[in-house]
Amino acid sequence: MRSAVIGAGNIGTLHAHILSECGYLAAVCDIDESKLSPYGGLALYTDYKKLIDEFHPDVVHICTPHYLHAEMTVYALERGVSVLCEKPLCISYEELEAVLDAEKKSAAMLGVCLQNRYNRETVFVKEYLKDRDVISAVGHVAWHRTAEYYASGSWRGRKATEGGGVLINQALHTLDLLQYFAGMPEKITASVSTLTLGDCIEVEDTAAVIGTKGPGITLFATNGQNSDMPVEISIKTDGSFIKIMPGFVMINGEIMDIGKETYRPLGKLCYGSGHGALIADYYEKLQNGQKFAIDGGEGAKSVRLILAAYRSGGAEVDV
Length: 319
What we know:
Elements: E1 3-6, H1 10-22, E2 25-29, E3 43-45, H2 48-55, E4 59-62, H3 69-78, E5 82-86, H4 93-105, E6 110-113, H5 120-128, E7 134-142, H6 147-151, H7 159-162, H8 172-182, E8 187-193, E9 206-213, E10 216-222, E11 232-237, E12 240-245, E13 248-251, E14 254-255, H9 274-288, H10 296-312, E15 316-318
Parallel strand pairs: 1-2, 1-4, 2-3, 4-5, 5-6, 7-10
Antiparallel strand pairs: 7-11, 8-9, 8-15, 9-10, 11-12, 12-13, 13-14
């Protein structure tokens, strides 16, 4: 396998590290040449189209700002190059339609990096729930982001380039897990606001999303907390109450043995430890000609929920 990473920022560096350990990393692309200096000996590009057309990698890992995900994914799939795309898969309905159409027509494989599905807590709870109906699932995300964080990239905090704020960036993984455990609601009501970061962003820093028809999922999220707090998910089934926090699962008051980490956490703590497991699974499925579970349709679910939340304005809307 010859793999390439497009986008050599924080998350791209993590992907490149994992691919190097696997022996797959063959090329890196970034418009900022200074970010390519650690990758001497590899094929280096500043134009992703040249990378795809001239180098012909087997897989590209798209680790660029949000607004570039759909464009790059479609370009690669149309040329038979498999894609593992960081979240979000895209930031608009038009992009979503284009990506899913390209996936359908391509012989290549699209995967979306929703790595928290591979956390040991998630794997344990998903197995526990397989014969149970979820009545309600609630997620809390209370993190701290600063003006300096948003100034670190010109695309951050801008509707046109990030697609939104806390919902589409920091809270997307938790929203994805809520629907992964409980199922997709048919309708939601949502509210978004900017409570603490209005002097440096044009998108929301605080959001609430409630499933009003179908599975009862609820998300509360903010970037305005004065320090990062652990993400919490609570799930109610008929006869069980489940609490999930990083490294911890409690069912009906009893702490569960969920085993040890299979993959070590890399990069920021908020990334979790699922990237290694997800990438390993993606390549195993690709090499064996099997379907990867988090394809375009799965990656689209959290995007549809978020886009519906942005449409809602406090009113009930279809997802």
